[in-house]
Amino acid sequence: MATLRQLEYLVTVVETGSFTQAAELLHVTQPALSHQIRALETSLGGPLLERLPRAVRLTPLGRAVLPHARAALNDAQRLHAAARRVAGLDGGELEVATVYSVSLGILPPVLRAWRRRHPEVRIRLREYPHTVRLEEAMIAGQADLAIGPAPARWEGPVRDLGVEEFVVVLPPDDPLAAHPGPVALSALADRDWVHFAPGNGLAELLDRSCADAGFQPRVAVRAEQTSAAPLLAAAGLGPALVPASIIPSGFDGVALRADPPVRRTLTAYTRTRPDPLTTAFAELLAFGAEPGGRAARWP
Description:
- By secondary structure, the protein is α/β, with parallel strands linked by helices.
- It contains 10 helices and 12 strands.
- It has helices spanning 4-16, 19-26, 30-44, 60-87, 100-104, 107-117, 131-139, 201-212, 228-234, 276-287; strands spanning 49-51, 56-58, 93-99, 122-128, 145-149, 158-170, 183-184, 192-196, 218-223, 240-243, 254-259, 263-270.
- The strands form 3 sheets. Strands 3, 4, 5, 6, 7, 10, 11 and 12 form an 8-stranded mixed β-sheet that branches. A two-stranded antiparallel ribbon has the order 1-2. The chain has a two-stranded parallel ribbon with strand order 8-9.
- Helix 1 (4-16) crosses helix 2.
- The N and C termini lie far apart (50 Å).
- Residues 289-299 have low confidence and may be disordered.
């Protein structure tokens, strides 16, 4: 049966692309590393790595095994972290995964409140451009808790956090900005839009919202960074559709509610048996946090 040490050796060889570099990182001799890889291959029934003159390449079996090896190592790390927290040996570490827009808008005040309550607990934040990538990361065991739209394939606990509303951002001198009420997306059908990079989940949301309004948005510019979209829109490059929560303070553009409203439900999902620390973070997240650190329901 494969051991965690053997799986660690496999992952390190793949990540470095070299038996020599992997042996140095792992503080073992290269013959010992090669022996453990061969033992793992024997255990799994076939070669995992193809040794090339100047590189190492995964075999089809190796490609199938690698995600499970990484997930097993991540699970082992969380197991030890949870044990340390329960035993009181140290503050431990909480790994939180989310999509870009949530890390920009909703999450910072929650993290600030958490830090005040649990200063000894380290937070490792992993950010992803798309909810599919976020869900895959959780399935692979790369985080304790994920925050984003409802997952499609998650079998563990899922907690509804509330509804996030999107706004249309325009420059202050735009004729539509003179009216404080909601703006119909169809009124912007002939505009060039500030869009998002194809891998960003907000690109799909914008296309879908515009399709519901009867048109396909023309692209003026595509923003790689979610935070850039409202700034580009305020500068006059075109309207943008963004979560209201990411509009920065002192923003010199105009943010108007969309008509019909554009909303999405956000959730937090965790392991089947989350530890007390993860549960406590999910509880705080469900109520948001005000700047002073006191819990406050959002949005």
